[in-house]
Amino acid sequence: MNESLAEEPGGADVTAERRLDGNALTGALAELFAIDLVPADCTCAHCGRTGPLAQYDLYADSPALVLRCAGCTGVVLRYSSAGGRIRLDLSGARLLVLHLPEQP
User: Fold this and answer.
1) Range of the structural domain that residue 77 is part of
2) 30 phi and psi, to 5 degrees?
């Protein structure tokens, strides 16, 4: 299954107007995790690119929030909350590294 984004003939990005940065994922992930995951480093399982979730591209205009790698456009994370359930698919993330606050 090819998860890359559709392009018009000539290579035009047809998704640019609906793309948000990964910071828009903050509120949704706060429902599930007590720690802010947006600054966490994520390694894309598709291309190996590593960076904070905030630097990935979020598409929030479908039934689930979809986070895509800015390097290869592969799906890294899917999140949905409906019917009293939260679903989190991280199959496109090879590794997620959380940075814990320093303890005094």
Assistant:
1) 16-97
2) -65, -25
Quick check: 44 and 28 in contact, CB under 8 A?
no
CB-based contact 21:57 (threshold 8 Å):
yes
pLDDT per residue as tens digits for the range 63-101: 999 999 999 999 999 999 999 998 999 999 999 998 877
Contact 68, 60 (CB under 8 A): no
In sequence order, what are the beta bridge partners of 58? 20, 67
Task: Please give the Cα distance from 32 to 30 (Å, whole number).
Answer: 5
What Rg do the C-alpha atoms of the chain give, in angstroms? 14
> Is 5 among the domain residues?
no
What is the number of structural domains in the chain? 1
Tokens of 22: 């990964």
